[in-house]
Amino acid sequence: MAASWCIEKRGSLRLDSFRENDNIPETGCLSIIVLGASGDLAKKKTFPALFNLYRQGFLQSNEVHIFGYARTKISDDDLRSRIRGYLSKGKEYEEVSEFLQLIKYVSGSYDSGEGFSLLDKAIAEHEIAKNSTEGSSRRLFYFALPPSVYPSVCRMIKNYCMNKSDLGGWTRIVVEKPFGKDLASAEQLSSQIGELFDEPQIYRIDHYLGKELVQNLLVLRFANRFFLPLWNRDNIDNIQIVFREDFGTEGRGGYFDEYGIIRDIIQNHLLQVLCLVAMEKPVSQKPEHIRDEKVKVLQSMLPIKDEEVVLGQYEGYKDDPTVPDNSNTPTFATMVLRIHNERWEGVPFIMKAGKALNSRKAEIRVQFKDVPGDIFRCKKQGRNEFVIRLQPSEAMYMKLTVKKPGLEMSTVQSELDLSYGQRYQGVVIPEAYERLILDTIRGDQQHFVRRDELKAAWEIFTPLLHRIDDGEIKPIPYKPGSRGPAEADELLQNVGYVQTHGYIWIPPTL
């Protein structure tokens, strides 16, 4: 798709997209409809992301209007009051007030045409007020809703809220995870939505793909000469992708118990990161070329072996009254994924995620093989590692062996460090939802999950998940605030990971 850039309000950049066939610019007004507007996701993530895009000039008050839709019977001002506290940071009071005036609320059910007819009428009134030419307006529907209502909501939108698109306008939907619970349910959901919308209209959002350091992965891998010859099984011993939280389910026990840590974190967030770490270089930056390479990684995965899986459940998890007393749901999982191709044959990809652990972080840890012919006898100090800290304290650092300062020829492990807080002072790293919503408006699907990619991901995990659901694999109890079950560390050691003892990375400060 061709595109042109222009400077707009507050010195920010705005992207005007053009249709490929006739080069007609998208000049029509933009309507953003937040379905489930009264819920937590909308208040805490969706509306704040929209506000930040507005504040930075990416959403223009003269062309955009925001509609909230939910079953709750409240007024426009009631919705504005509910979300104001999630937007205001003191000095931005005037901007918050301006933004809130762009929001209109419509109440209705998710399976009846009456509410969606009212919604369509409200959107049409906005389009007419903005003098938008029929066929040029743009409608973005954001599903801040449980997946169980996706099919009915899609039908309502298709029947009552579609706009004409003969002059460059469009209708797009953004759906949140979880996309099903296994292969069968995911395929059923995909089929139900696919009957109503074409794939280019569907944006399956995984907010991890919007994180700054995840966005950096392709640049790191394919724009730096010294990574190209090293990024393979000849030099890399193992790769860890880790997600750790230092708190439990915190009131979400009932929801979490339905899915568990594998469905909630590993099958989507961490697997998306793995694809970017392991994929081959795409032929270009075009979204479909990148997504093609991600799918190839998933299709090259070997079945997960039970002996390379350790599950855990923290003590006290079942004290939550919304969690069944006999729950077999894991709150912790460490597993090994293996890619059967020329680049990665024999390299274990260790996926690790857990709640109520001793720290909070998400990172990628690439551990290189031992140096052959080690004349300095420094193997015990640890291997070279390249670490990408996704959150918190975003950073990239390389663990190296260097000479310890002094008169003796002794070695110590240190690092080459790029810590974002120090290197990019004063630069605000955008929230993932900001980036992804903006991509949706621009029509860029690079950071969204394609249907065949979703299917391939579920094919990897569904057999294991069914064995867990049937009670064939049991989680091991672990104490809150620990590293998780000791068996997980034993698994890492068995597949070749060498832990560094005595070295701790400390984010640098000025």
From TrEMBL:
GO terms for molecular function: glucose-6-phosphate dehydrogenase activity; NADP binding. GO terms for cellular component: cytosol. Keywords: Carbohydrate metabolism, Cytoplasm, Glucose metabolism, NADP, Oxidoreductase. One of its GO terms (biological process) is pentose-phosphate shunt, oxidative branch. It is an enzyme of class 1 (oxidoreductase). Its main location: cytoplasm. Its EC number is 1.1.1.49. Residues 218-496 form the Glucose-6-phosphate dehydrogenase C-terminal domain. It is found in: Cytoplasm. Pathway: Carbohydrate degradation; pentose phosphate pathway; D-ribulose 5-phosphate from D-glucose 6-phosphate (oxidative stage): step 1/3. Residues 33-216 form the Glucose-6-phosphate dehydrogenase NAD-binding domain. It catalyses: D-glucose 6-phosphate + NADP(+) = 6-phospho-D-glucono-1,5-lactone + NADPH + H(+). Belongs to the glucose-6-phosphate dehydrogenase family. HAMAP family: G6PD. Catalyzes the rate-limiting step of the oxidative pentose-phosphate pathway, which represents a route for the dissimilation of carbohydrates besides glycolysis. This is Glucose-6-phosphate 1-dehydrogenase. It comes from Nicotiana sylvestris (Wood tobacco). The lineage of its organism: Eukaryota, Viridiplantae, Streptophyta, Embryophyta, Tracheophyta.
